[in-house]
Design brief:
The chain is an alpha+beta fold. The protein has a single domain, classed as Glutaredoxin (3-Layer(aba) Sandwich). The strands form 2 sheets. A 5-stranded mixed β-sheet has the order 1-3-2-4-5, covered by helices on one side. α1 crosses α3. The two termini are about 25 Å apart.
Length: about 120
């Protein structure tokens, strides 16, 4: 599934925003909604793709940290995630301001998109 608008100038590469999920992930719809909403608020310049990670083997191939995972241009939006070595084919929890939650912080996504759009 892909979602984007045609508002960017021709030839300018769009950031790729991937929402990686396991089958039946209870946070799938909320993660996809977050991705689409933030992209739309930022002018629809990113392409949004939902990527199913159906098996443990698939999780290992894509270095999956759990469902849902959001990446911009191949980089996990959670600060410090690049240092994680554990592959998880199951639910992912994020440390929020006051508790664990099933979605990453919206600010992380906004920052990741800002950095991707600033790249030449």
């Amino acid at each position: 599934m892909a979602w984007a608008t045609d508002s960017e100038p021709p030839g300018q590469p769009r950031p790729l925003l991937e929402v990686l999920v396991t089958p039946g992930c209870p946070h799938r719809d909320a993660a996809v909604g977050l991705a689409r909403r933030v992209c739309e608020q930022r002018g629809g310049k990113a392409e949004v793709r939902v990527v199913e990670v159906p098996t443990r083997q698939a999780a290992e191939q894509v270095r999956f940290l759990g469902s849902p995972t959001i990446r911009v241009n191949g980089r996990d939006i959670e600060p410090g995630a690049e240092w994680s070595v554990e592959v998880v084919h199951g639910c992912r929890l994020y440390q929020g301001a006051h508790s664990l939650q099933g979605l990453p912080e919206e600010a992380w996504l906004r920052l990741a998109l800002h950095h991707a759009e600033a790249q030449p």
